[in-house]
Design a protein that fits this description.
binds S-adenosylmethionine, two-stranded antiparallel sheet, 2 domains, set domain protein methyltransferase, domain 1, S-adenosyl-L-methionine, 502 residues
Length: 502
Amino acid sequence: MAEASTSLYTTLIPHFSQNPSPSRRTSALPTARDRNSIRCSISATSNDSTRALVSVSQKIPWGCDVDSLENASALQKWLSESGLPPQKMAIEKVDIGERGLVALKNIRKGEKLLFIPPSLVITADSEWSCPEVGEVLKRNFVPDWPLLATYLISEASIMKSSRWSNYISALPRQPYSLLYWTRSELDTYLVASQIRERAIERITDVTGTYNDLRLRIFSKYPHLFPEEVFNMETFKWSFGILFSRLVRLPSMDGRVALVPWADMLNHNCEVETYLDYDKSSQGIVFTTDQPYQPGEQVFISYGKKSNGELLLSYGFVPREGTNPNDMVELPLSLNKSDKCYREKSEALRKHGLSVSQRFPLQITGWPLELMAYAYLVVSPPSMRAQFEEMAAVASNKSTSKKDIRYPEIEEQALQFILGSCESSISKYNKFLQGSGSIDIDVASPKQVNRKLFLKQLAVDLCTSERRILFRTQYILRRRLRDMRSGELRALRIFDGFRKLFQ
Ligand SMILES: C[S@@+](CC[C@H](N)C(=O)[O-])C[C@H]1O[C@@H](n2cnc3c(N)ncnc32)[C@H](O)[C@@H]1O
């Protein structure tokens, strides 16, 4: 799933481009099936439709429970019959990730696995069972993400008539995704984390994308896009599937794809290998970076993502301290009462920054950009000649030196970062201390379980993010103490010399 969610930020856009995507080829992948027998258009009142209707309030009628193996053997059988070579792994229930791929034989480090042929992969070029539906979207230059989301719904809704029915039946009916969190759940559970804002943005993007499609395309072709099938509920499902399973294949010009079977692999933060197209074997592969014994779960990497990003796209939080790419964002702002507020904000604007910025903190430290921003915030009017340089370094677009130092204001800059860090910590403390008393007062036991599950995810996320803030606080305090004791020592030495010459 490497870089799967990176593709979101670049391709999921609520307002579609008027130009055709340059990377999209027009030819469709060859398939053996004859599609003429499938009825594609239905009227909303049709009784004998081949489509599975799903009203907005209904549950998705396709897919399976997230931990179910019920359709896994049918998927395996269909894939083998369709050209998937014999595998050294099988789908099983696992401790991490509910279902996953488990080694059947000894697997060596450096071994290539999978070899999934392109004919078994879903891309923006895949053939539609209802060609008219695909043609309308392509005529309107719908980008890859919304196109694939519509494709999935279109194929899922015709059930057994779709070439992908065995694959779709094995997909989770409700993927773990922040798209399913209500606004009040986000506000309650993610109140301390910056991921809350990212989740709201993402939900807004998905809702905007669906509304845009509905307004511009679906409403004009109601016989092809009946609302009973193409609605917000089904789009939430399909986008949830894309966020958690779509991969970007570097060796296929970065094209995005759903890769049945490979998408049963779970993520491990300590593994670095990822899925890609292998030109020599002409299939999707990955190369193991550790050996596996029979019965062990095999993992790949979904990319160098923080715990928050993993929760956002994949709906899980790794165990505390196991993710070397974990990160938390620290918000910093210019002080409104600063005498140089206008000049500083102008310098920031010039370099593409705003008066409030967020900077990533990791357990190993913070970026030079953050320090430059802090210098700018605390610098006095006498340093106005340096505002430009500070803003340039803070923006990461500076071509000149990056590691700027202003010893005269270093202590204030560190103290400013520490203040912001401590105010973030207190937000996390408040949430974590109060999380025991969050009201889980709901009628059905299923709802209670859901709320407890969301709360646990939020507690895990906030604990890991606070851990990074604690570490930053420790380093800042130690530096400040060293600086102050260094200054004190220098003062004493200076005092000693003064007395000597008196
Ligand atoms: C590409 S799918 C992997 C297959 C999935 N386990 C399944 O049964 O369909 C990604 C989903 O697997 C689960 N997952 C993957 N890695 C995980 C991990 N390290 N811990 C917990 N869940 C994980 C999450 O639910 C995620 O949304």
